[in-house]
Design goal:
globular, EC 2.7.7.27, alpha/beta, 2 domains, UDP N-Acetylglucosamine Acyltransferase, domain 1, 28% strand, 9 helices, ATP binding, nucleotide-binding, glycogen biosynthesis, 9-stranded mixed β-sheet, 7-stranded mixed β-sheet, binds adenosine-5'-diphosphate-glucose, Spore Coat Polysaccharide Biosynthesis Protein SpsA, Chain A
């Protein structure tokens, strides 16, 4: 029997997430809370750990403190059998510059590859909500003999200019062309309104990645980006293939969430992805115990509902108390207090917020530690929300940053 390949996982977690401001004012995008009790990075780490890939380095750079703290507390693993999840901050090992791009982040961390001596390097982004068995992608990579395998998914053409776009060769597996974030993404022959997009998840044969990174580092014209430079280089060399996400079969997946993948890169997509969690038959099912999404929970009592509170289609986390209020289609984090007469609809409320009596919140995102005084309405009049210094997204979601003060 052939020896099992040695796999090193690298999670790119240095992204700034500018389009998620103000949620990323104080933290890296992968550390942004999601779904009440998770951080975005929990999804990729769960996907890798559940797939048996347990030698994992998380490359961080931008405002990494809460990310580092979360990974350290949540993802401590037994080091027996080589299991580890370790955060690696930018260290200026090669000179006085920070990471110039995602490829440079790996190039500057070459010592991790030299130490682990892997056969295969799995490089995944940290910004998405999905379930994926990464071992099935590794298997396809080995069977097809690719240098790099890029995970691909069909997305609406209108959204594809945010993504790397893949054109496959006639065999459907080799990548003939890769366009990073094209202004006018091409449609698919069988579906003109859809495009085949890169999910930002790659499996590399280790020697191919190391050689590509060295060549890229020596190219002064490169932006040192995985999607912008490394993948196109390997496509030009004929070494790149695609892995269609629809072929991924995660244990316990339901028909409706089998191919669920959301890039929660904007405030609107972040809000919509929360709404995907709360319906009676959610399009993304957090309750699949065959492929758990792991996180760490604070030590708190269960959520409490008093004084005829009405709560429907919502997630309410531990330590929260909803008293005489109405909550609908919302995700409420830990230690949140909601007082009588408040009406909350399509809201994402993070930990330690206090919502006063008779407050109205509609289509809002409240980051942690916000106190809303009695009787205030937010999300009802966008112009008033802007005047009060709140962010209003393109889609009309009002967003308050961590600890933002709301005047009575
Ligand atoms: P983007 O997400 O726009 O596109 P990028 O900003 O490089 O690309 O982020 C990719 C991942 O790398 C994220 O997890 C981010 O946190 C991380 N990252 C970014 N800069 C980093 C740095 N300097 N150091 C460490 N980590 C860093 C990418 C691909 C597209 C693909 C989309 C899918 O380039 O081809 O379609 O992901 O969302």
């Amino acid at each position: 029997m052939a020896k099992a390949p040695k796999i090193l996982g690298i999670v790119l977690a240095g992204g700034e997430g500018k389009r998620l401001m103000p949620l990323t004012a104080d933290r890296a995008k992968p550390a942004v809370p999601f779904g009440g009790s998770y951080r975005l990075i929990d999804f990729v780490l769960s996907n890798l750990v559940n797939a048996g890939i347990r030698s994992l380095c998380v490359l961080t750079q931008y405002k990494s403190h809460s990310l580092d703290r979360h990974v350290t507390i949540t993802w401590r693993m037994s080091t027996f059998l080589g299991n580890y999840v370790t955060c690696v901050p930018a260290q200026q090992r090669l000179g006085p510059q920070w990471y110039q791009g995602s490829a440079d982040a790996i190039y500057q961390s070459m010592n991790l590859i030299n130490d682990a001596k892997p056969d295969i390097i799995v490089v995944f982004g940290a910004d998405h909500v999905y379930r994926m068995d990464a071992s099935q992608m590794v298997q396809a990579h080995i069977e097809r003999g690719n240098g790099v395998t890029v995970a691909g998914i069909r997305v609406p053409r209108a959204e594809a200019s945010e993504f790397g776009v893949i054109k496959t060769a006639d065999d459907g597996h080799a990548i003939a062309e890769f366009l990073e974030k094209p202004a006018d993404p091409p449609g698919l022959p069988d579906s003109p309104d859809e495009t085949f997009a890169s999910m930002g998840n790659y499996v590399f044969s280790a020697d191919v990645l190391v050689e590509a990174l060295r060549k890229d580092a020596a190219n002064p014209a490169s932006r040192h980006d995985m999607g912008g430079d490394i993948v196109p280089m390997l496509v030009a060399e004929g070494k790149a293939g695609v892995y269609d996400f629809k072929d991924n079969d995660v244990p316990g997946a339901l028909d409706r969430d089998r191919s669920y993948w959301r890039d929660v890169g904007s405030l609107d997509s972040y809000h919509e992805a929360h709404m995907d969690l709360v319906s009676i038959q959610p399009v993304f099912n957090l309750y699949n115990s065959d492929w758990p999404i792991f996180t760490s929970h604070p030590q708190l009592p269960g959520a409490k509902f008093t004084d005829n509170a009405t709560v429907g289609e919502s997630i309410v986390c531990a330590g929260s108390i909803i008293s005489g209020a109405t909550v609908d289609h919302s995700v409420i984090g830990a230690n949140v207090i909601v007082l009588a007469g408040a009406k909350i609809e399509r809201a994402v409320i993070m930990d330690n917020c206090k919502i006063g009596a008779n407050v109205v919140l509609k289509n809002v995102i409240l980051d942690k530690n916000i106190e809303i005084p009695d009787g205030i309405e937010i999300g009802v009049d966008p112009d008033l929300d802007r005047e009060r210094g709140f962010t209003v997204s393109k889609g009309g979601v009002t967003v308050l940053g961590k600890g933002q003060v709301v005047k009575p």
